[in-house]
Amino acid sequence: MPDTLPPIAILGAGSMGGAILQGLVRSGLAAGGITATNRTAAKAEDLDGLSGVNSIALEQQPTGNADAAAAADIVLVGVKPAMVPDLLREIAPSLRPGTVVVSLAAGVTIATFEAILGAGIPVLRSMPNTPALVGKAVTGLAAGSAATAADVAVVRRLFETVGTVVEVPEDQIDALSTISGSGPAYVYLLIEELTEAAVGKGFTEQQARLMAEQTFIGAAALLEASGEEPAELRRRVTSPKGTTERAIGVLQGAHLAGLFAEATDAALARAKELAQGT
Questions:
Q1: Could you read off the pLDDT of 34-73 as tens digits, one per residue?
Q2: Is residue 2's pLDDT more than 70?
Q3: Where is the Pyrroline-5-carboxylate reductase dimerisation domain (predicted)?
């Protein structure tokens, strides 16, 4: 696999597209350059000055999306899902055969992309999560019918600049979104609740936040650094007949496994509703 990436266009470099752009710049792998588009000059100016980035404001250059797509080997589509079909129709005549198009749009199927873009354009669907902003994303990646192993490999390399990649069939993308896509919110909720418990035991809000947040950050760092199973690290903290064992017993008694299954099932049901337009 080449050490560097070919020319890339990011159409709609908003929060997620912008996070990936920052990761690419940090990595130094985007030797072919990056062209990013945004609707307004103000948003485009935010990206000006980044190394190897050509930032286009569509209000100043109305053909910017098509221009960017024409010059790219990989095109990331980062606009809102409802805007995707119109954008694809706009850029389709400008794409060269073999240009890889990658969706960042939740709920838009590969079939929608392929129907508009036509034969000869490999399509992949991605589902990154918000820790992409700090290079710690989990990105789900599903290949369309025309995507080769080489196409998947180069797109995987692109997303690895902002974290880790899990390759799945498209019919698992929505399920993946209930785990890694929504997952940061579950972690933040647990931190909120542990903070409240600390406040209830007489700590100040500042002390409570510091203890809860840094405990989660430290535990995650230890998990990553040690390579151990979470269950093993939990056992090491849980002395027999000790205080932690008593607390864990209460949490397990609340049937957390069933609760997380129920919560992620609810998220999956909502994803299906959204796909049907309800």
A1: 999 999 999 999 888 888 999 999 999 999 999 999 999 9
A2: no
A3: 170-274
Q: 168 to each of 108, 135, 165, 173, how far by Cα in Å?
A: 16, 21, 10, 7
Residue 10 is given by DSSP the state E
Give the long-range contacts of residues 267-276, CB within 8 A, separation 24 or more.
267/177, 267/178, 267/182, 268/174, 268/175, 268/178, 271/107, 271/174, 271/177, 271/178, 272/174, 274/106, 274/107, 275/107, 275/109, 275/174
* Predicted confidence (pLDDT) per residue in 143-182, tens digit: 999 999 999 999 999 999 999 999 999 999 999 999 999 9
Cβ contacts of 147 within 8 Å, gap of 6 or more: 100, 122, 123, 124
Which residues is 103 bridged to in the sheet?
77, 125
Q: Which residue has the tokens 């199927």?
A: 109
- In the chain, the amino acid numbered 36 is A
**In this structure, what token pair is assigned to residue 183?**
């997952």
Mean pLDDT of the chain: 94
pTM exceeds 0.85, yes or no: yes
Contacts (Cβ under 8 Å, ≥6 apart) of 82: none
Strands 100-103 and 163-167: unpaired
Domains with residue ranges and CATH for the chain: 8-172 (3.40.50.720), 183-275 (1.10.3730.10)
Query: For residue 36, what are its two tokens?
Result: 């990013």
| CA 278 – CA 274 distance, rounded (Å) | 5
CB 57 within 8 A of CB 41: yes
